[in-house]
Amino acid sequence: MSGKKKKPGIGGQKSESTPLEMAPAVLFTAIVIVFVRMYRYTRNMKQFYWGAGQNNLIDFFSHYKVVFIVISAILALLVLLYRSVSGRFTIKRSVFYYPIVLYGILVTLSFVFSQYKEFAWHGWNERFEGTYVLLCYMLMLFYIINFVKSERNVKQIIYPVAVISAVLSLIGISQYLDHDFFKTIPGQYLITPNTMWRPIRDAAARGELQFNFTLQHHEIYQTVYHSNYVSFYLTLLIPLFILLFITEKKPVKKCLWGTLFAFLLVNLIGSSSAGGFLGMFAAVIIAVILLNKRLIKWWKSVAILLGITALVALCTGKTWFPEISKTFEMALPETEAGETAYFDYIVTEKNTIHMSYAGSIMNVTVHSIDDSSSRLEVTDSEGKTIELEYQGVQEPGTGRSYGAYLFSDPRFSGIKLIPAVGEGSDAFKSYIIVDIESDTPSNAITNWPFAITKNGVFYENQTGALVPLKKIPHIGWKKNPQFGTGRGYIWSRSLPLLRDTIFLGHGADTFTLYFPHNDYVGQEISNWPRNTFVDKPHDLYLGVFINTGGLSLVCLLAIFLIYIVQSFTLYRCEKYEEFCPVAGAGIFIGICGFLAAAITNDSSVSVMPLFYGLLGTGIAINMMVKAKNQRGNA
Q: How is residue 341 annotated by DSSP?
């Protein structure tokens, strides 16, 4: 038969990856996110003054995801080894490998020099995003770039992602409607060993839940632990499925893509996370810039999507409107902290408590007279003695009375110093309790217990640990620490930590070990419960900088920036007549939305496999689109 050979389309290489070779990529990208299973483990938490002292811990949402991340990486290594030995593996040429390898080296070095190697290797409790997990991310990114070679390979990743996201969306909708599958007996059986089945039945007989994962009423958390992560990964998927819907010609498939979009949108809104809205806003801006006039050409499909969006927004208004209102309210600056808070700072130094109360400095020094008694001396910033008056005080609402030192000085009229002794095993421990009349709406009395020891005076926190207090460095958000549901406070205390991790970090997932948990005054100022535990920075970029170092963040940003520039250049002139360019542009827009949402969200084993899987797929598609364009111009 004569005639010219047909030019291959996008991804029309003779050597495409087999389904078996694609299995590690599919497991990593699409399947890992599903796993939920009870896991018991032990960590030495009693070594930390801010910990609850509980060494026996339980996880449901992270450990088994990590197990299958590692399995996917091992399978990928076996495929790479087999293909290399058989001489049938050729590495695609790509600039991405340089930052990938350098990032892996910096992650490893951060572990090698980490002070907390156990946590740096395995990751923090209920997160488990340790050193080997980050290395698995990079391995799988490399693997997917090299093994996605054709349109069929692209579909072998995207279609399973679509199916899994549909299943997760149905779980999320059930949670939104207060019919959470994980609240049912079969649901709890599924995610626990059979040794827990009897307690589950007994709890159900009492009308209770053995395990309740919901933080708020009707909260959507799917299988990713927290609603924030739901909105986070949905910013990655929604743009992809929108473009597939718009360009689909077959009515049945178009209907399926449209239905999936509606499901995902309900979950995005039902997650009640402003970070997701931020990511989608960024994605829309990028889409308008990239697609511009094509949106007019696609006006019918765009109109259908807008109609679905309006209908879903109307039905879920009670969820998204309060969230948006709260976000704008928290973004507004409040009054200076010192004008409304009881304390500006508290510092303990030997036997003295240094305090600044509404801008006025007071120093309380405990002088020991003998083993059973002590004397208080109070001075101001100039060293002048502040007179105290010992009086009996009746506690409001209880009828109980106690002795307290009161101030006649108007600067400190809201403060009482109460001598006390411990109870039970601490019966012989002496205390000085600082009582402050709070400016909070409840007008509560706030107690600050300071234990008097031979080694000095220490604040006793809610776990019973004796903690020295100091001034905590902070940058920004002084007037609105509640910005972003407390993110302003967390970020302001995290930024000063960056000076120590410019080159190498403290180790993967060790952020919480360096966060100033003894900032009890800052917590009070921010209206947080005292002794609040912070285990993540609520910002992916801050987390990378602190955990694995500023240079490692530069490497990741290099990967992202190269991909963004490359994708924008390719897709701004694309005709979108084939599946791969459509999928590539959708992934690109989703990646942009995800990276914007990452400003308010953390890296997590629940969402990062999907991110790196689609990023690798997007890079591979770009290579195919570029090759097609070069053939067309030849």
A: S
Contacts of 515 (CB under 8 A, 6+ apart): 490, 493, 494, 497, 534, 537
- Residue 398: CB atoms within 10 A of its CB come to 7
Asked whether residue 149 carries a pLDDT value surpassing 80, the answer given is yes
- In one-letter notation, the amino acid at residue 13 is Q
pLDDT tens, residue by residue, 560-618 = 999 999 999 999 989 999 999 999 999 999 999 999 999 999 999 999 999 999 999 99
| CB-count burial class (<10 Å; 0-12, 13-18, 19+) for 372 | exposed
Buried b (16+ CB within 10 A) or exposed e, 510-535: bbbbbbbbbbbbbbbbbebeebbebe
Quick one: pLDDT at residue 256?
97
CB 189 within 8 A of CB 58: no
CB 617 within 8 A of CB 148: yes
pTM exceeds cut of 0.85: yes
For residue 424, is pLDDT > 80? no
Q: Which strand (E) or helix (H) includes residue 40?
A: strand 39-42
Question: How big is the CA angle at 555 (ends 553 and 560), to the nearest 5 degrees?
Answer: 95
Average pLDDT over residues 359-388: 85
Query: Which residues have CB under 8 Å from 487's CB, separation 6+?
Result: 538, 539, 600
- The dihedral region occupied by 59, where left means phi > 0, alpha psi between -120 and 50, and beta the remainder, is beta
pLDDT of residue 430: 87
- pLDDT at site 421: 82
Q: Percent of the chain beyond pLDDT 90?
A: 68
- Alpha helices (H) along 316-412: 317-331, 337-340
Report strand pairing: 373-380 vs 456-460.
unpaired
Average pLDDT over residues 105-134: 97
Check: CB of residue 213 under 8 Å from CB of residue 182. Answer: yes
C-alpha distances out from residue 122 to 27, 128, 297, 544, 554, Å: 21, 6, 51, 16, 24
- For residues 133 and 547, give the distance between their C-alpha atoms in angstroms, rounded to a whole number: 13
Residue labelled with tokens 């308010």: 600
pLDDT at 5 over 50: no
Per-residue model confidence (pLDDT) at position 275: 87
Structure confidence at residue 510 as a pLDDT band (50, 70, 90) = very high
CB 547 within 8 A of CB 508: yes
Query: Residue 433: which residues within 8 A CB-CB, separation 6 or more?
Result: 417, 418, 419, 420, 447, 448, 449, 450
Residues 583 and 158: beta-carbon distance below 8 Å: yes
Which residue has 């349109």 as its token pair? 151
